[in-house]
Every structure is written in C-alpha cells, then in structure tokens.
Write a structure and sequence with these properties.
The structure is a single chain. This protein has helices at 51-69, 103-119, 164-175, 187-199, 235-245, 249-258, 287-307, and strands at residues 7-12, 16-24, 30-39, 43-44, 47-48, 75-80, 86-100, 124-136, 139-141, 149-163, 180-186, 204-209, 214-220, 223-230, 321-326. 20% of the residues are buried. It is an alpha+beta fold. The strands form four sheets. Strands 3-2-1-6-11 form a five-stranded mixed β-sheet. The longest helix has 21 residues, at 287-307. α5 packs across α6. It contains seven helices and 15 strands.
Amino acid sequence: MDIDKPNLFIEINDNHFNFLVGKYDEDLNFEVINKKSILSIGFKAGRITNSKDFFENIKNTILEIEKSVNYTFKETIVILESPSFLNINISGFKNLNNSQISEDDITFIINSLKKTVSDNSNNFSIVHLFNSKFILDNKSSDNLPIGLIGNKYSHELSFFLLPSNDIKNISATFSKINLQINRVINKNFLEGISQVKKKGIKKFFLINLGDIKSDILFFDNSVFKYSESFNFGTHILKKDVCKVCSLSISNVEKIFSKINFNNSQLNDETLLNKEYFSGDLYRKISMKHIREIIEARLEEILDLVYLKNINLEYLQNHSTEILINIEKENI
C-alpha cells in the first residue's frame, strides 16, 4: 500500500467493470480521486469469454483514467465476482504435552494445512486464507493462544480458491498493458465485511438474491467461512407469472412495479386491472392467484439457498442472524 500515491482497484463482474482510484494518507484515511464504470464485455460467470473484447475495454479505460489522474499504474487490486470460488474449511492440531504453544507451532500447522490444500486442489490456486477457529484443550479462543499452556491445540483455516487458469487469463490481460495484479479479492468477502462494520454483528448468513443469480455467505466471529452461488435469481418469479397467467414480460414488470402483494386485503375477488394486459388477451386473473404463484416459487428459492441446503447443515444454529439483500427494488 503506497501512502499519498494513487491506488487502482478494479471490480470485475458479469454486468460491469468498475474502476476506482484512491489514495491513503499517513493515518490510512482513504480519498477517492477517480472512478468509472463500463459495461462488462468479454466476461461471463467469472471467466473471460472473449479475450480481445475484454482486453480492449480494460486497456482503453485504464489509459483514460491514467490520463485523468496524471499517473501510470504498475499494479492493481482486482475484486472478482465469480461462481467458481471453491471453499475449504480444514483443521490441524498439535499435541503440546502440557507445554506452551508458540508462534512456531502455529506457523507449522498453517503451513502444513496450506500444503495439504494445495496438493489436493489440482488446477486451483489459493486466493484467501483466514484463521477461523482456535481451540486449546477443547476450549475455543477468540485470539491466537500464544504462550498459553495446554495438552492439545487445534487450528482451523478457511480457504477460498479459484481455478488457476481463470487467474492466469486475467493476469495475462493486465500484463499486456504492464499492469501487475497485486491481489485478487472475492467480492463476497467485501460484502460480508461491510455488514460486520455497519451492523456490528459477527455471526450471520448473508443471502444475496440477484435478478438472474443468487448466493449465500456465512461469517463466524467476523471470519468468512463459506460461500455458495446459484444460477437463478428473482427474475424466475416474473417468468412464472408470465407462464402461468399467459402475460408478456413487459406487463409482468408493470405488475411487480405497481402492485403491493403484501396487501392482506387481496382475495379471489380482487382482479387484475385491464391496464396490465397491454397486447395480451384480457382474462379474469385474481391478485391472490398471482401472489400464490410468487410465494410458491419464492419458498422454493429460499429452500434451495438456505432452509433445505444440505451444505449448510453444519453451520446452521438458532443463534445465527440472517440478512437478505435483494437486487431489484420491485421484488
């Protein structure tokens, strides 16, 4: 991190490439001095799909930013949204025989676990590594118990990995313009950390319901421990209404934007107004029926993402808070 020098951050996702330039002062206060967003081209589902388009868009935007801030960047931090992140939680231990635990003991466990993960995760590279749990003689500690005496110490790490070729392809693009990737950051990690700071909570699930994709994250003691992506989003609610009620997507969009389905007064007698049938054959469709279609699919989505997700069984308990972000306002 350079003090009083511009730092370049680039967020890459399916919809946009977001560029931000800022600098830190000696007190690590951050000042934004330039930002720009362009439509994502040549990139889909966490991977480059057209290297030429991807390169041209990245190159042209960076050159424009460099000219604006009068600075040539040599490195960047990439914030990546990708469904290809692999999550592994693994523990190692050491018998202490009633002696003190030292930094060397912990370093040995961490290095051993890193090697185990690397050796057994072919074609994947480690992006994040978090210390997630410290247990000395079956008692959890919030901090590293260096210097304490015990018989057995267990150390848990949470790893997040990406396909090595995905990282290499992105790095190769930046290297063409003499820009080195300093670090790759999982966007979900930043979203979770922002919740820790804003709400002051340490243990929670965060469910992101996007328009065409969704994901769920889990933080425990402010540590990022789990992430899972799904290739469906809230747009499927509108598609169901389209199909079942034989309405065009444009009419369904109007329905979602104008009608409040939380209204307890909706019943079989409350019919959909003719204004929502533009270009479609008018039929008697009750508001209650539309609400039931939405509720049925929404229940299925929440079952798949959280309630009946077998991957979360070992993480769920009654004390965990659940936060939900919804991308589309009319949902």
